[in-house]
Amino acid sequence: MADPILDIRGLSKTYKGGVTALAGVDLQIRKGEIFALLGPNGAGKTTLIGAVCGLVRPTGGTIHAFGEDMAKHWRGLRGRIGLVPQELGFDMFDTVIRSVRYSRGMFGCAPDAARIEEVLRSLSLWDKRDAKIRELSGGMKRRVLIAKALAHDPELLFLDEPTAGVDVELRRDMWQQIDALRARGTTIILTTHYIEEAEEMADRVGVINKGRILLVDEKDAIMAQLGRTEARIALTNPMASLPPALSGYSVTLEDEGRSLVYRGGDGTGKGKQETAELVKTLVREGIDFEGLETAESSLEEIFVNLLEHRGESAA
């Protein structure tokens, strides 16, 4: 793997009073990827972002961005990083375009009217450019946050719960914008409560809980390794017990013997294959069935399972 654009090693943060927000986090982000960081409230997601963006002073560990030590070269590196924070924070009496221009200038970038217009148009804000921010809806204010973060053309962009509290249509618009940013070469780290966002957008997924990284892997690899298949087979004739031919399968009888239910593949990714083998066995043994329904675990189910099982062991 090429050198990561962001390399975090042993990062820790303990606040006054003894609350540990980060406990030895190791995380490497690849250039040009979309990385989704999942975790419940209080897991450490926002603290991690704050540490990289200079808003939180770590207790220990190192952060290297673009191959340089953030602690030593923070001023120069910060201009290459963008942040869309979770909380709305504006001068509510400022206009949209003036607020976005100010953000660009704050990072030392020369005025560029064409680029500001491009950013505002991409977020459907151009028609609102002269409106005061206080006049906008919550969803439009969140778009302004993204515009401000993009104004200085960051190479690494953090999106902290960017679609929290917005409607489904606006969420889809933002996903399209994120995809366009990736096409420009921007590396994106996304924290979200919406598992569907990770499934839709991310190349890799990390799960954090209680300040510890529980898992980091390719999204598809997580689905394959930890996914679970459930197959429900409606039998033509009810069974009183499982025949010996089915003893090697993870199956149970339900609905008073009218349904044969397979649950497996957890940790192997072979659920579909085992379901096919089960069906072949039923046909070979002359066991008639009337229907077959299958379902795969969603990333949300995997996420919940990780928090319940690995989270406790990591505490």
From TrEMBL:
One of its GO terms (molecular function) is ATP binding. It comes from the Bacteria. Its EC number is 3.6.3.-. Transmembrane segments: none annotated. SUPFAM superfamilies: P-loop containing nucleoside triphosphate hydrolases. This is Daunorubicin/doxorubicin resistance ATP-binding protein DrrA. PANTHER family: ABC TRANSPORTER ATP-BINDING PROTEIN. It comes from Croceibacterium atlanticum. Pfam families: ABC_tran. The keyword Transport applies. InterPro entries: AAA+_ATPase (IPR003593), ABC_transporter-like_ATP-bd (IPR003439), ABC_transporter-like_CS (IPR017871), ABC_transporter_ATP-binding (IPR050763), P-loop_NTPase (IPR027417). The keyword DNA-binding does not apply. Keywords: ATP-binding, Hydrolase, Nucleotide-binding, Transport.
